[in-house]
């Protein structure tokens, strides 16, 4: 399978803090990765590199067929779908659901004077239908529930048929029903052979959809484990990443984790200086 990304010794240093520390990692086009790690582990920073919004301080980041620092990021970014709450905040609340997705064709948020082809409109409608939003296309984005807004973010990210899809906490803040509905849709999408390579950041193993294949664990900017989920998602490796003794259970491709000794939480050590 083709490689969609290769990081070699990637580090990010900001204000003397090592935020990402010598990360080496490859992702193939048929892999669906989950990135898990505690608050401050460096997940958002890593997504900034993967979405070509940040360059490493050192090391090499190859995305699709380009190397960051030696390529025009404005050509690269449209090939990478990115769904995040931060991006969704830029969608005007008065925008219709259809336009919220359609405007991804021009990499803008907020419809202005752009001319969209019928082909684009049909594609946006098809994508909305796939993400169970077809009945809401005329509704205003700002009036949607959290679960619906999360699905619009993803629909927008897949509108341009990306080669790499990044999802930043897609199930964060959702209630149980909305979470399960989203995980079901994400799992179905991830299982389709024509789906792009996917990388999803989450804080919770309960939010890993079926159909995801690989897991990368981060702690203090370092990869503590990476590989197929069945091998990496153990109480030992998850416990090492979160600094806790854990009990992990797996059932039919879904996972749960809880502290082995509630209250006996080892605090994450302080960040190192560069
Ligand atoms: N520009 C910056 N200058 C200094 N420190 C920074 C900068 N950006 C991020 N950090 C620090 O780097 C660490 C990693 O941040 P990052 O947001 O990538 O972590 P995260 O894993 O996404 O955290 P969370 O799960 O809380 O969202 C944090 O301690 C953060 O305070």
Automatic annotation (TrEMBL):
SUPFAM superfamilies: P-loop containing nucleoside triphosphate hydrolases. It comes from Lysobacter korlensis. Keywords: ATP-binding, Nucleotide-binding. Residues 5-245 form the ABC transporter domain. InterPro entries: AAA+_ATPase, ABC_transporter-like_ATP-bd, P-loop_NTPase. Pfam families: ABC_tran. It comes from the Bacteria. Gene3D superfamilies: P-loop containing nucleotide triphosphate hydrolases. GO terms for molecular function: ATP binding. This is ABC transporter ATP-binding protein.
């Amino acid at each position: 399978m083709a490689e969609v990304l290769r990081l070699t010794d990637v580090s990010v240093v900001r204000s003397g803090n090592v935020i990402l520390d010598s990360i080496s990692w490859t992702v193939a086009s048929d892999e669906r990765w989950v990135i898990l790690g505690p608050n401050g582990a460096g997940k958002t920073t890593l997504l900034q590199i993967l979405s070509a919004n940040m360059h490493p301080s050192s090391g090499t980041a190859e995305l699709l067929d380009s190397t960051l620092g030696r390529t025009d990021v404005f050509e690269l970014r449209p090939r990478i779908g990115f769904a995040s709450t931060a991006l969704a905040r830029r969608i005007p609340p008065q925008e219709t659901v259809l336009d919220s997705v359609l405007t991804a064709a021009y990499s803008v948020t907020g419809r202005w004077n752009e001319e969209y082809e019928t082909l684009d409109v049909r594609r946006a409608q098809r994508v909305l239908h796939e993400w169970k939003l077809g009945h809401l296309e005329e509704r205003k984005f700002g009036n949607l529930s959290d679960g619906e807004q999360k699905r619009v973010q993803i629909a927008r990210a897949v509108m341009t048929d990306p080669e790499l899809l990044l999802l930043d906490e897609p199930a964060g803040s959702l209630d149980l029903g909305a979470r399960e509905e989203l995980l079901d849709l994400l799992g179905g999408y991830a299982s389709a052979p024509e789906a792009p390579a996917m990388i999803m950041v989450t804080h919770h193993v309960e939010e890993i959809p079926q159909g995801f294949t690989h897991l990368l664990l981060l702690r203090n900017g370092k990869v503590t484990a990476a590989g197929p989920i069945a091998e990496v998602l153990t109480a030992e490796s998850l416990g090492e990443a979160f600094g806790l003794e854990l009990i992990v259970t797996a059932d039919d491709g879904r996972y749960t984790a809880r502290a082995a000794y509630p209250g006996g939480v080892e605090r994450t050590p302080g960040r190192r200086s560069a």
